[in-house]
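Course assignment 3, question 2. Fill in each field.
Student: A.L.
Task: Predict the tertiary structure for the chain below.
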Amino acid sequence: MKTGVVIVGHGSRLAETRGIYETIASVAQAKSGYEVRVGYMKHHRPNLVEAVQSLIDEGFKRIVVVPLFIVPGLHVRDDIPILLGKKQGEVPEFGYSRVNAPSDVEIIYAEAIGADPRLAEVVLDRVAKALNGSGQ
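Answer field:
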């Protein structure tokens, strides 16, 4: 079954933040072989629904949506599931509507990044770089 992945980022008003999500998506795609896209909640395009819809339009029958959030706040718990049709509720006012997936398309909502222990390795890497004078 043709599987695609959408990484969900919050988005920012700062244009330079955009490439961070795309870099993560590119590495994930290279390592996995899945088609990996980025969809934003706010401030950038494509938004979450556009990213999912683009995969549907290209014939993907299984789409895994991964929220790239550490804290499982309102976007993770409510907004994203509502936009994906996984939860009932009022559509958040982001200027776009729910995903309109045909019945033969499976949308799977993955866990948020959360307190994954591998993040501690990244933190310690940043500490080492800072102590060596190569941090920001």
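Instructor remarks: The beta strands are 3-9, 35-40, 62-67, 106-109. The two ends are 44 Å apart (CA to CA).
Grade: pending
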